[in-house]
Design a protein that fits this description.
By secondary structure, this protein is mainly alpha-helical. The protein is built from twelve helices and two strands; from the N terminus they run H-H-H-H-H-H-E-H-H-H-H-H-E-H. A two-stranded antiparallel sheet has the order 1-2. This is EamA domain-containing protein.
Length: about 300
């Protein structure tokens, strides 16, 4: 962890880590009960978009007034990549390999986010990044060999789903930091625009592809995904606020949020014992990935 991290950035980053450490657990329960990845992604984005819309209306101000077109475009693209595509991948990964393994793999995100932040935003990075990359690779290797996760079994290729989520989330966070640095918007407006773009993208896909199966899942799964959407709304707003602060560099915020697997592993051990096996290899791999993520930010 970067010792120069301000208490506010620390709070706004670790809060989402705890929330996003818990949501994969309840989502896994719903996915195992007949829920589907596309349904999950759609319900979550519908719920958080609704909550952000209500929050914007409660301010008593007309939102997005004076918002530059290029800034709006940045958050639209971030919503498509970092939200719609990323969540589809993470829900699919959660379904295939289990919450503990999937969450740990997604925490490789700081590797990609930091590389993009250095090249695209010219953010400073230390030589410890090299060590972080090596630790991340070892952690992912340990996870791929660990005999744990979903009790129905999985193979190494299934890790490509959460890894794809890590890449898309990384792209999304770098774009968000860039858009917030452009100015002309608040964190609430930015996250609302981000999620609205994701809603249009996912909704458009459902209509064009004729995926009416999103309406055929058991009723209780919609309630679980709605709870996840509410928690995600809080976590996203906190993350956007952290990224909007001068000291909220991607190379600091992203790795802090990437500690989520530590919480997921604990929650999975106590709440998903009938669906997942949390082995020593899973714990070791999760710890290595998080340590690597922290080193990347040094």
């Amino acid at each position: 962890m970067n010792v120069s991290v301000s208490p506010l950035v620390l709070l706004l980053s670790l809060g989402p880590a705890v929330l996003w450490g818990f949501t994969p657990v309840i989502e896994k329960r719903a996915l195992s009960g007949g829920g589907r990845p596309l349904q999950a992604a759609l319900v979550v984005v519908v719920v958080d978009t609704l909550l952000y819309s209500l929050a914007l209306l409660a301010r008593g101000k007309v939102p997005f007034v004076g918002l530059p077109l290029e800034t709006a475009a940045v958050f639209v693209v971030a919503g498509v990549f970092g939200t719609s595509l990323g969540r589809l991948a993470i829900f699919a990964g959660n379904d295939r390999v289990g919450a503990s393994v999937s969450s740990a793999v997604v925490s490789a995100r700081p590797l990609f986010a930091t590389a993009l932040a250095v090249g695209f935003l010219a953010e400073p990075v230390s030589l410890a990044t090299v060590a972080g990359v090596l630790v991340l690779v070892v952690g992912l290797a340990v996870l791929s060999l660990a005999k744990g996760g979903d009790l129905s079994g999985w193979d190494g290729r299934d890790l490509l789903m959460p890894l794809a989520a890590a890449v898309t989330f990384a792209i999304g966070n770098v774009l968000r930091r860039f858009g917030l640095q452009l100015g002309g918007t608040t964190a609430l407006e930015a996250v609302a625009l981000n999620e609205f773009a994701a809603l249009v993208a996912l909704g458009g896909y459902v209509v064009v592809a004729g995926r009416r199966d999103v309406l055929d899942a058991p009723r209780r799964t919609y309630g679980v995904f709605a709870v996840s959407g509410t928690m995600t709304a809080v976590a996203l707003l906190a993350m956007f606020t952290a990224l909007s602060l001068p000291e909220g560099r991607v190379a600091v915020v992203d790795p802090l949020i990437a500690t989520a697997p530590l919480f997921t592993t604990v929650f999975s051990y106590f709440l998903l014992s009938d669906l997942e096996r949390v082995t020593r290899g899973i714990v070791a791999g999760a710890v290595l990935v998080v340590v690597g993520a922290a080193l990347v930010a040094v």
